[in-house]
Amino acid sequence: MQLFYYFIKYENNPKTDPLLVWFAGGPGCSSFTDLVFGHIGPLSFNISSQWEDGLPRLESNPYSWTKVANVLFIDSPVGAGFSYATNKSYIPSDTNTVKQAYEFLKKWLIEHPEFARNPIYIAGASYAGRVISTLMLEIINGNEAGSETRMNIQGYIIGNPVMDDFVSKHAIEYAHRISILSDELYESAKLSCHGDYEPIVAEGNAQCKEILEATSNCMDPVEESFILESKCNVSTPEKWCRVYYRNRMSQSWANDINVQAALHVREGTISEWFRCRGRRSDDEFKYNSDVDNSVSYQQNLTTEPLRALIFR
């Protein structure tokens, strides 16, 4: 198993300041996205530039997290981004992704001993919520068991985390809080569905099913990633469509042979780079989601002397 990574040193004092290890969501999305989408990395695509006949242009991101920490972006699980498996029949899962990430971090710290004592924070977004809490416990247990590569783990950060399969309840409550759903419609949904908005439950409750269809009609026109925007045309997005237009730019940039050579991508290891695997009909990506609920892992972490930030 070969995990690809991007490492950006802290701009001031990299030898003493935190090492933040970033995992993308998906599962199967490349952390390159977070490096160049202007979220946390030092670079951002220049949306206003003309690039159709060449490579998209990059510009400096003044809000980069590398102004406060060293950031290690990992393409995980195997199969995401430029990471690959030599065994073509290999199927990644939540549990083996955690094991591989832990082994990778130990090896990386051995190869980069100047960062071995830095405070370490594990971070990520979306589906990484299932993996990060499990990885945190793996690191803590390894430290307690006397691992030769002891990590100075200090905390974790998760944005918009997927922790279980019951997302419908939270989506409706959130849509109401930000005024996408009216008070009247939200109260009707609570009353008719008894606070349980899963489609399988609604099948046996005609009134609940009707109300959920009404909530979907309100929520469907809204772009989930940026709720102040309308939904985009995914295949031919306009520049104002921030996520999907950047997806197009990253697809062009990361698949350029000169870019891959500059990044030291091993030739022939992947046929095509995808921002997120399995989203296109011609790209099959098998993944076993074997951690059904990571809430209990989060509860275990609350007993540890750690700093935590979980946000939407």
Q: Roughly how many Å apart are the termini?
A: 32 Å
Order of helices and strands: EEHEEEHEHEHHHHHHHE
- Structural category is alpha/beta
Q: Percent of residues in beta strands?
A: 5-15%
Number of domains: 2
Number of strands: 8
- Can you tell me the residue ranges where pLDDT is under 50 for at least 5 consecutive residues? none
Helix percentage: 25-40%
Strand order of the largest sheet: 1-5-2-6-7-8
CATH class of the largest domain: Alpha Beta
Q: How many helical elements?
A: 10
CATH third-tier fold name of the largest domain: Rossmann fold
Outline type: globular
Corresponding CATH superfamily of the largest domain:
Alpha/Beta hydrolase fold, catalytic domain
CATH architecture heading of the largest domain: 3-Layer(aba) Sandwich
Largest sheet: 6 strands, mixed
**Residue-averaged pLDDT:** 84
Radius of gyration: 21 Å
Oligomeric organization of the protein chains: single chain
Describe it.
- It comes from Chenopodium quinoa (Quinoa).
- 35% of the residues are buried.
- The chain starts with a strand and ends with a strand.
- Helices cover 34% and strands 12% of the residues.
- The protein has helices spanning 32-36, 94-111, 128-144, 167-177, 183-193, 199-202, 206-219, 242-254, 257-262, 295-301; strands at 5-8, 19-23, 43-45, 58-60, 70-74, 120-125, 153-159, 307-311.
- It is an alpha/beta fold and 312 residues long.
- It has 2 domains: 5-165 and 255-311, Alpha/Beta hydrolase fold, catalytic domain (Rossmann fold), CATH 3.40.50.1820; 167-219, no CATH class.
- The model has no long low-confidence stretch (mean pLDDT 84).
